[in-house]
Amino acid sequence: MSVTKTPGGQMNRDRYAELKNILEERRREIMGQVQDKIRDVRTEGANNPAVGVLDAAESSEADIQDDIEFALIQMKAETLHKINEALERLEEGAYGNCFECGEEISRQRLRALPFAVRCIDCEEARETAQKRERMLSQRSAASALYFDMSS
Ligand SMILES: [Zn+2]
Question: How far apart (Å, rounded) are the C-alpha atoms in residues 109 and 120?
Answer without folding.
Answer: 8
